[in-house]
Amino acid sequence: MGTLRLIESSEWLQQLQNIMQLAGAVVDLLDVQGSSIMICLEEGWDITAQVSSVAQLCLDPHYRTLDGFRILVEKEWLGFGHRFSHRSNLAATSQASGFAPTFLQFLDVVHQIHKQFPLAFEFNDYYLRFLAYHSVSCRFRTFLLDCELERVECGIAAVEDKRGSLASHHKSVDTGSDDEGVYPGGRLAGSCSGPNLGQSVFDYIEKQNARSPLFYNFMYTPDTEHPVLRPQSALPSLEVWQYYLGEQLAHGPGYDLEVIQMDSQQEEEAEAADGIANKSARRVVTMGYDDSECIVPDAFSHLLEEIHKLETELGHLPQKWKVLWDKLELPTTDSLTRHASFSTQLVRSHGRLLHKRSTLEILMRGKMVGAAEAAQHVYSHPHRFERYNYTTPTYCDLCTNVLWGPVKTGMRCVDYGNLTSQTLSRNVGDNGSVSSSVTTIQTSSQQYYDQFSSNVAENRTHEGYLYKRGALLKGWKQRWFVLDSIKHQLRYYDAMEDSHCKGYIGWY
């Protein structure tokens, strides 16, 4: 209970929930509304990279593959200069800043989504734990220093890091660029010359994945009909990642594969020297001491390993595991269309409603806070109101309610142009009639605008047809509108060819 109490007091799961809620709102706005989203949080660092990465992961199935996830990390984290050394306290200058595991938090969110959608990801959970461990291990050059410039200046950036988003068979192609001058000691992938810059963690994963299915998710089945993921962000849907709790005391952390392989080889040699080899395939596995994933692999990995051993014993050239896996025939499926049960449909509908409700709560909370701040700023000083006839329904600047202009007269501030109703104008400091100084300012401004030529063709910032689509005032005639940013006018014509406008709407 003490561990669970410490986890609750850290509010780690609440932070994961907030990230998933914000990313879910971005997913809904992009997928359902078709809107464009600009994420402006913490000057583009930390939470911005987290929300943007999670949203793209849920929207695009390509980022749920091994190659796509590499591109996502290189683009959103490495390319935009996430401060890995500073946030992880890897440098002497950042020791007093405190440990801020921003990238680890992102991987934890991916783990939570992976748990809810185990068929949607090509990589398994060990892949995420491997990245989490080596993001602070300093073994690979990928997560060293704070930006690409620092890695170039220290000579640990290679050309293939810059071209990580390309396919592997394109990396060895010389594009004729001057990358050698930009990247000191840089070399194309596959070349043996040049200094040893260290290894990229993604190149290492790619090599290991070609040898064994260590990072592969055998349940990977992409859903082409429903590519967008909408994970649940409620606290009961989240769990504490096993990465924080698991231990392997036999070899240390199970993410240094060479160390585990060396220890296993030494154990086999010791057993062979004692003459006790191959007596029994059974052994005792102790949780917390032995690495159960390595000693007791899953059935798919075990069978592929057995095939590799048999081919070697027969003197055949062993085939790669991915080739064997792709050769497997898919089981025959029923040609009849399977309909989801009523309970399944109810659960899916309820999940979509919860996801939509979370998005609406975020949008409304931001709108209410923004409206309150705007109202406090707008009406912090006394205003002078006059009666004003709205030609169209307008939102009140104080309460954000609709002012039905054609039906009822409202009020407009002479100094600032704020719009409100007659009732609310009495509560924000109406100082009476307009003074003569305001009239003088408006007159001089009108003289300034009138000094321009009346030829409307000379000042056309934007132009086009405008018409009413809604039910309210649907009978409006379609007109040709011209926006003049010089004279501050919106002129309207009966047709595009007309040289004289029927009227204009001006602002000063």
Structure in a nutshell:
The chain has 508 residues and is α+β, with helices and mostly antiparallel strands. Helices cover 42% and strands 7% of the residues.
- Note the total helix count: 19
Name the helicity range.
Answer: 40-55%
Order of neighbouring strands in the sheet with most strands? 6-7-8-9
Strand content: 5-15%
- Average pLDDT confidence is 74
SSE class: alpha+beta
Protein name: Myotubularin-related protein 13
Domain PH: 459-508
Family: Belongs to the protein-tyrosine phosphatase family. Non-receptor class myotubularin subfamily.
Domain Myotubularin phosphatase: 1-245
Structure report:
This protein is an alpha+beta fold. Among the domains are: 2-276, no CATH class; 436-506, no CATH class. The protein is 42% helix and 7% strand. A hairpin with a 4-residue loop joins β7 (479-484) and β8 (489-493). The relative contact order is 0.06. Residues 459-508 form the PH domain.
Keywords, separated by commas or semicolons:
508 residues, alpha+beta, 4-stranded antiparallel sheet, 3-stranded antiparallel sheet, 9 strands, 42% helix, elongated, Prot-tyrosine_phosphatase-like, Myotubularin-related protein 13, guanyl-nucleotide exchange factor activity
